[in-house]
Amino acid sequence: MRSYDYSFLSALSLPEGLSSLLAALKSPSGPFGHKAAWKPEIPQEFDHLARTSSTEKSQDLSLAFSAYTQALAHKGEPLLSAPCLVLDILCINPLPLEKGALLGGALLKNSGYPGIEASPLGKTAQRFGFFFQRALERSQIHWAENGNDYLPFLEMFLAVIYLSIQENGPANRRSTGKKLTKRVQIETFVLESATAVSKAEICAALPQVSPTTVEAVLGSMVRERAIIRIGGGRGTRYLSAAHSLPSQQ
Length: 249
What we know:
- It is built from eleven helices and three strands.
- The protein is mostly helical.
- Strands 1-3-2 form a three-stranded antiparallel β-sheet.
- The longest helix has 19 residues, at 55-73.
- It is globular.
């Protein structure tokens, strides 16, 4: 039987990249500024989902939300707890990823990060949907048996938050007012991915960028040694040099 408990997050050893991302989001000089007080109330989005779900799913949603509020009551970090709750919600009652992201934003707003409301989280999640879906699938494995790994989804969710804020600067008080260029979008996808990605995967995730542009940027990144090329032909994949093993470089 599935159970819900987010207390493990307080002792979770985070990978270096995720730890740095979390620190950047939490910093008083970061995108959210100083953290506000937690409002122990149910977001309207969650309440609507629970009321429109089947009895069994509604019960599971209530159990998951109770575990979430308990984690926050014990000084848990919402930026870690909220994505885990969103993952469980998506496993209990599958939703479009952008709706899951918006639900996560509503949770964070009530949990001390009201600045999240200004970022178009749903649109960013939709645009990065390929990687978001892949992270979700990895974190769903053995979910029903309480044996799943939250880290892939947690890492992707925080990355989407960060990218949403960075790309849509006008909505943020520390904005530069600039949109990400196509080159930066490609670089971000490849460098943020913990696993090697193919040109086809990048094109699928960034339909607004032409394959020719993707190929040109990848070639430039390889020459600059920002990424490494693995394999050849249609099986060629690209991996951030920061994530590669010495034997791959």
